[in-house]
Design brief:
The chain is mostly helical. Among the domains are: 60 residues, no CATH class; 74 residues, Serine Threonine Protein Phosphatase 5, Tetratricopeptide repeat. 74% of the residues lie in helices and 0% in strands. The chain is built from twelve helices and no strands. Helix 6 packs antiparallel against helix 7.
């Protein structure tokens, strides 16, 4: 190939690469005030054009670090990661926002979103419940420290879901121990559940299995106390009839022993 033709070829491909590079980057208007830049970025954000909104907010944060719009840009960057399902990155941005701006009125929102980042990762009850635990911690913190926040109501609902999932996980472990005849481990798990999950609706079932566990451990007195608690606190429980049968059997078994220790009457 002649030298001139080779030069033309190199020039043509250079222009082509430059054109491709320009097309590969979102266009960002870097002129205007912080307010104007933020308005343009929010327009992209509102249209869910996160691909272009992300560098637009990043530019505001970097170009106008002392502007109140830079603070809002930090929060919107966190939101973009959240809506893109990038929860690890979103957690980092929300945590940084909360750390750098502790008195900002949007802190309750950041805390709620931190909880939601973990809530979105909650798995079924038979899987690891670490995300549910983390989510519950953030929701509980929001409920206790910002009771008037508009996000507190939603946090309460999500908190209960997390706690229910954690309860189901712990109860399934207790049931596994019980079915495996590891009654001491089952008893410990059921007792721990009762102390941790006070509002769970099926506490009567936990009491029932706790009573059974004590019975298998030959702790008859403790088993009776637990079953009587079940009947007193949950009179309509589906486990009530079985609890009464067990208590009746225990009373019948105890009667001959009581007669055997009675002194002879003169």
């Amino acid at each position: 190939m002649p030298f001139t033709a080779r030069k033309r070829c190199v020039w043509f491909f250079s222009i082509l690469l430059l054109f491709s590079a320009c097309r590969g980057k979102p266009a960002i208007k870097d002129s205007g005030t912080d307010e104007e830049c933020f308005t343009r970025a929010m327009a992209l954000y509102s249209k869910r054009d996160y691909w272009q909104a992300k560098p637009a907010f990043t530019e505001i944060r970097d170009k106008f670090p002392l502007s109140p719009y830079a603070v809002l840009a930090e929060l919107r960057l966190a939101d973009i990661h959240y809506f893109n399902g990038e929860y690890v990155e979103a957690v980092h941005f929300y945590e940084e926002f909360k750390r750098l701006h502790p008195s900002n009125p949007d802190v309750p929102y950041a805390i709620f979103q931190l909880g939601m980042c973990y809530f979105k990762q909650v798995a079924s009850f038979d899987r690891d419940q670490s995300p549910a635990e983390k989510a519950a911690q953030f929701f509980e913190y929001l409920i206790k420290n910002y009771p008037e926040s508009p996000f507190t109501g939603s946090a309460m609902g999500s908190y209960k879901i997390c706690r229910q999932r954690m309860f189901e996980h712990d109860f399934s472990i207790g049931r596994f121990y019980y079915k495996s005849k590891k009654y001491w481990a089952a008893k410990e798990r059921f007792a721990d559940i009762l102390s941790q999950y006070s509002f769970i609706s099926n506490r009567d079932e936990v009491l029932y299995y706790l009573g059974l566990s004590y019975q298998h451990l030959n702790e008859a007195t403790r088993a009776q106390e637990i079953l009587l608690t079940l009947l007193r606190d949950y009179p309509q429980s589906s486990f009530g009839s079985e609890a009464r049968i067990m208590l009746g059997n225990a009373s019948e078994a105890a009667a001959p022993e009581a007669d055997a220790v009675q002194p002879d009457k003169q």
